[in-house]
Amino acid sequence: MRDKVKYWLEMSDYDIDTAAAMLETGRYLYVGFMCHQTIEKALKAYWSANLDEIPLKIHTLSRLAERTGLDKDFSEEDQDLIDILEPLNIEARYPSYKERLMKSLTHEYCINLLESTKRLQKWIKDRL
To answer: What kind and span of H or E run contains 117?
Structure first.
């Protein structure tokens, strides 16, 4: 496996493990943030494996999925997850969004978010 693909996959795995650790400690804002990071890096691994260019230095999941062509194969559930995760990268960083976001990220919600992220991550990895 090419070094760049391996790098992105290792980082994606690290991020999903971090999301799980954040869930265990009740840091729900960071569960969402790390789930976003997990999918971003899985998409960049796929990009590195299939395109002859370096992945864009962007965090927009829908744009990364579109550029890799994976979006065409997404189920409705996959697309819904992308739509949920996409703003968590930015909104987790700014105080004006944090309070609202923290109210929506309950323990049960984060359990489901983590499981859905694991499923999509595996789906992307299976296509490598």
So the answer is: helix 107-126
